[in-house]
Amino acid sequence: MMSHFHHSASESFWISCALIFVSLVYLRGWLRFRSHERDCVFHENIEGWRAASFVLGLLFIWIAMASPLAALDQEMLTAHMAQHLLLMTLAPPLIWLGMPRKPLARGLPRRFLQEIDRPLRSEPMQQLASVVTHPALCWFAAAGALIMWHIPSVFMLGLSSQSWHVIEQASFLATGLLFWWPVVQPWPRDSKWPEASMLLYLFLATLPCDILSGFLVFCDRVVYPVFLSSPRSFGLSALEDQQCAGALMWTCVTVVYLIAGAVFTARLLSFHRSDERSIPQFESQKIAVLHGDSKRMEAV
Prior knowledge:
By secondary structure, the protein is mainly α. The chain has one domain (9-299). The chain is built from twelve helices and no strands. The protein has helices spanning 9-35, 48-65, 68-72, 77-97, 101-107, 110-120, 123-132, 135-148, 152-160, 162-184, 197-218, 238-299. Helix 11 runs antiparallel to helix 12. The protein is globular, with a radius of gyration of 24 Å.
């Protein structure tokens, strides 16, 4: 039986400091946007709810990685599943909705930005970004991380080693950010995929989650034996804890993806209706122009 490692206070401290630093940099840049009205026109205006969304996303990361929940995941599969959901399903879309690029750029020192701007704008980096953010790669990265880290041998490796546990959490967050990138699109990029394909993208993403959560809920044995030796928290047996974890994943993923799909559908319908309204107006203007040209021809 593999032994659990224990979270250190120093790890939680440094994670908390890093998240506080990122939030302060973001808020500094966001306040600069708000204080200069000439920068808050057209698409550069970043509303207050976006700043709140970004900070809430960072708060979810803190809950998953540095709060008491981070220590509880060594004892309960449900706590581990809550971490996984916070890092992959809840925090990433909130962070992207915060439109972080410009506030973070405004919040950082100008000299630091000048040092990193040229490498980031280079042609190889731009090509790499277009490959990494391709919807197919984003989908397979998230699905691969989900499946790989829930294989029993790999899962127990993450529980027994602090280094591997950090890698596990980092991969959950990184692949979660990749997965939600094509859906939220925090800043415009050329995409060959039609917007309606994102509905299929979200639907297919529920399948690996449904299979895994259904297996955990309906399996009649404990899949991860390491939890058999854990203290019984909240009066749940190891099997009941496993079923609760599967049900939590099943419910959370379904609700979040359903909300995202509903928002996406509403946006597509609103664009379609606006296009329909613009067509008659365009046609009437065209007819008026043609009618005016015909009158000029008759006069000649």
